[in-house]
Amino acid sequence: MTIEQILVIALAFTVAGVAKGAIGIGMPPIAIGIMTFRVPLADALALLTIPTLLTNINQAFTGGHFRPLLRRFRSMAVMSAIGVLGAGFLLGKLGSPSMIAWLGVVLTIYAAIALFAWRPVMPIAHEYWGNPLVGLASGVVAGITGMAAVPFLPYMQSLQLTRNDLVQGLGIMFLVIMVALAVALVQQNIFTQDNALGSALALAPTFLGVTIGNRIRHAASPETFRKIFLAGMLALGLNMASGLL
Fold this sequence. Notes:
mainly alpha; 0% strand; 11 helices; 78% helix
């Protein structure tokens, strides 16, 4: 690994950590999006594994409503894991060069939805079929691209959860998907011993970024910061998706 790649990786995890600390989401797409300028997508996905798992463990178990939220969203969590493993094992395309452009498409969709704040309302009565369906779709997308966000993030925003329940619920989903994704990475020989070491070392810039993000969240408007980094993510996604043209 070159010095340039190491610097890009450190920058990616620091910036992604800032976003995670400031608003609680955005770490995987930001980190992967920056790293893929100088690091192969497969390696970027592997490096992301440990920092994402640890930050999401904290998010999933912080808030005091872990058990009720897990009961409410267990079908979504189970189906998302099935989707990740099914896509990873059957398609076997995780981390292939062609997936960089498709990752850009996912980044664009995610950023556009979040940036323009289109939040439809999903009645609780429809969760019995919506949860597993959205979970499966989210798992398949994550199993192909390595990014967990679409479509379960906008779907969960449509459920009109309280801010704390939304953040904790997202943490639970991120955690389940990342565990399944880690299994797929190992099965495809992407998450190797070398990548595991690099992923562990990435914890330092990640939590540095989280610390900075926490301070920004208390010193400035989170909504202002959210719009800035989502606009940057949208531009980044469009640039990566241009490979499909």
